[in-house]
Amino acid sequence: MFEPQGPTLRELAVQALSSVEHGYDLLAPKFDHTPFRTPGHVLDAVTQALHTLGPFERGLDLCCGTGAGIDVLREVCRGRVAGVDFSAGMLDRARRQTPEGVAWVRGDALALPFGEAFDLLVSFGAFGHFLPRERPALFAEAYRVLRPGGRFVFPIGAPPPVRSRAYWMLLGFDSVMRVRNAVWRPPFVMYYLGFGLPEASAELTRAGFEVTLRDLPELGRRPDGSPRARAVVATKPHAAETPHARETPHAQES
């Protein structure tokens, strides 16, 4: 499951008993050697989907971690790209291993330090860190920092069948995390079930987005022929344009 350079069981235990922010600060040096990093084939599939939607100017990787999604933005965006995350450790790792020209910004996804500055937002594997009550604020922030016509795009997998081993493994993990958070502080929010395509579409629509889907055929199909994953494409309508929309980010880089 982990590469030899990955974290030890003890290191994972320490991380799991920390807050989300501090836990990722601790994990950052070895994060890219864990299965938590978004796989390259997922990034490639989303890149292909974005090529059919672009080109774009400015791009932002929301909850960027060590920067796995930045290469996606660099390929489809003609202007400057940025990554935002609340973990200083993850940002430091991203900065060390990414070419110059990327703005790395430390910030809270629920209160983004930008104006209406981006044409494209992407996010990979971050939504399990947000409780259901927090997602309206998350999507409202994504909507706010996009220019009219801008798009918020992220992959979402088909749910595993209830009778599958994967489903019960994820359910077991979520159950352990709920018990851990009930008896230990600070909480570590990371849940795999409970945020699927219906929830994503409904919550993005309530935030003001127009939502469409793109199949990601590169990631395979299920036995019934349906795709194993889709890209959610949430577009901020042009009607949302305001006369004083900001043209550039005003955040300071971390």
TrEMBL record:
Protein name in the entry: Class I SAM-dependent methyltransferase
One Pfam family here: Methyltransf_25
Entries under InterPro entries matching the protein: Methyltransf_25, SAM-dependent_MTases_sf
Superkingdom classification of source: Bacteria
One biological process term in Gene Ontology: methylation
Residue ranges of domain Methyltransferase in the record: 60-150
Keywords, alphabetical: Methyltransferase, Transferase
Bias (Basic and acidic residues) ranges: 218-227, 238-254
Molecular-function annotations in GO: methyltransferase activity
Coiled coil feature spans: none
Region Disordered, residue ranges: 218-254
Transcription in keyword set: no
